[in-house]
Amino acid sequence: MKTRHKRMAFILVGLAGLATAAGLVLNALNSNLALYISPTDVLAGNIPKDKAFRLGGMVVEGSLKRQDDGLTVHFDVSDNVETVTVAFTGILPDLFKEGTGVVTQGRMVNGLFKATEVLAKHDENYMSPEVAEMLEKGEKANQAATGAMAP
Q1: Count of the separate structural domains present in the chain
Q2: What integer is the mean pLDDT of 60-85?
Q3: CB–CB of 123/130 below 8 Å?
Q4: pLDDT digits (tens, 9 = 90+) for 122-143
Q5: What's the pTM?
Q6: Domain with 124 in it: what CATH number?
Q7: 140, 113, 144: which is closest to 37 by C-alpha?
Q8: What per-residue confidence (pLDDT) applies to 122?
């Protein structure tokens, strides 16, 4: 084999290895991707099948219910249009409370969102851009619906 052929084979093997490594990295990133979905989209059925996703909105006032084990809680998350019930077993963040923004990560199981992680907002002024946009859309939809019904 000539030196030129050896060099070309070495380059091709290197490119094949690089392509394989890039494919493995992209596959790992795609499998860990958690999409953000609003309660309206969840109830419309626009959720990924067999995949975790993030659900966000406002914790509905008066919806927080703790079970006797002390770790399991149920609460409702709303985007000012629709509401989804969330079940979470674990320790809630210190800033978690009713009437504040929340983002949860988990899966839908028999009409109930089973959260594996609950994130609360950082302070009174912070809200993730996705949650703020979703709440604004919900508020506009409510205003349009009540405005259309008014005589």
Answers
A1: 2
A2: 89
A3: no
A4: 555 556 677 677 777 777 877 7
A5: 0.63
A6: 2.40.50.140
A7: 113
A8: 57
